[in-house]
Amino acid sequence: MNVLPFIMVLLGAILWGTTGTAQTYLPESVHPMTVGTFRLAGGGLILLIAALSMRQVSFRDWAWGPTIVAAVAMAAFQPFFFGSVRLTGVALGTVTGIGSAPVFAGLLDWVLLKRRPSKKWVAATVLAITGCALLLLTGDDVSVNPAGIALALGAGLTFAIYSMTSKTVLEFSEPSAAVGVIFTISSILLAPVLFIFPLEGVATREGASVILYIAVAATAVAYFLYSSGLKALPASTAVTLALAEPLTAAVLGVLIVGERLGFFAWTGVGLILAGLIVLAVGGKVKSKEEKQIERLRNGIERTKELDRDIRP
């Protein structure tokens, strides 16, 4: 089994996990929605320019339907996610939003694509989501706000929709082109945000440096890696692997920000890691349809070999 797609998705999620730590260096006047808008605009333009320079974009044959859905989903993810964080706090908002995404992705896979979740995916997802829940047990008070939880679930759903629809776009285009076009459209949809919240903090040296890092590393590079891996993996699998994001954020919070994790939180870290290992390393269970397709392909290859041997 080719593990490269798993590694690429994990690396992308790890880079996403650095975003929270990076934002701690931003001036307090910079609103999170402003960060979200700039990250999509910067990351999208970087990838779009790269794709155009390599002549990877052909708008004549572009899959515009899935592209628009993916762009709207990614644009909607920003207010859902940041709104949940504001109402419920960073820990609960992040864990609920990112942790619910694999469940939504698995359900969408099952309902829309008629693809039943494998036992391996179920086991890995249960381990990882349980680990995310334990990450909340840091000793701090957690404010459970119903509206905030609803927004967080909206974030999980929109991220799952983005993953599924962008995977369709990736069937017709290269990762840099797909993400570049989708994010550029998303940033246009979010552009009014820049006229609502103050931008003074972004113009400072610290603000510009952090925004640049988030746009380049935590967005352009991260989503290029994620999309490259997503091209070869089911959306539900990629979204579960993306739970490496809260894992990374927790570890960086300890190592760099100076946060402290208790026994249950560290147990949660271990469970998330175990779930990711199960998903990335565990043996692939093939469905009946996959086995039939494989047998058909093998039969075609044997027929071709016999034909070559018979020919004078």
Secondary-structure blueprint:
Elements: H1 4-16, H2 19-23, H3 32-53, H4 64-88, H5 90-113, H6 119-135, H7 146-170, H8 175-190, H9 205-230, H10 235-241, H11 244-257, H12 263-281, H13 288-310
Question: Your description of this structure?
Answer:
This protein has 312 residues and is mostly helical. It has helices spanning 4-16, 19-23, 32-53, 64-88, 90-113, 119-135, 146-170, 175-190, 205-230, 235-241, 244-257, 263-281, 288-310. α1 packs antiparallel against α9 and α6 (119-135) packs antiparallel against α12. The radius of gyration is 21 Å and the shape is globular. 49% of the residues are buried.
Features of this protein?
mainly alpha
Quick overview of this protein structure:
The protein is mostly helical and 312 residues long. It is built from 13 helices and no strands. The radius of gyration is 21 Å and the shape is globular.
Helix segment count?
13
| Unreliable residue stretches | 283-287
Q: What separation lies between the terminal Cα atoms?
A: 37 Å
Backbone structural class: mainly alpha
Strand content: under 5%
Counted beta strands: 0
Biggest β-sheet, characterized?
none
**Helix fraction by DSSP (H/I, runs of at least 4):** over 70%
Order of helices and strands: HHHHHHHHHHHHH
Radius of gyration: 21 Å
Look at the structure and give the mean pLDDT: 82
Based on the structure, what is the oligomeric state of the protein chains?
single chain
Shape: globular
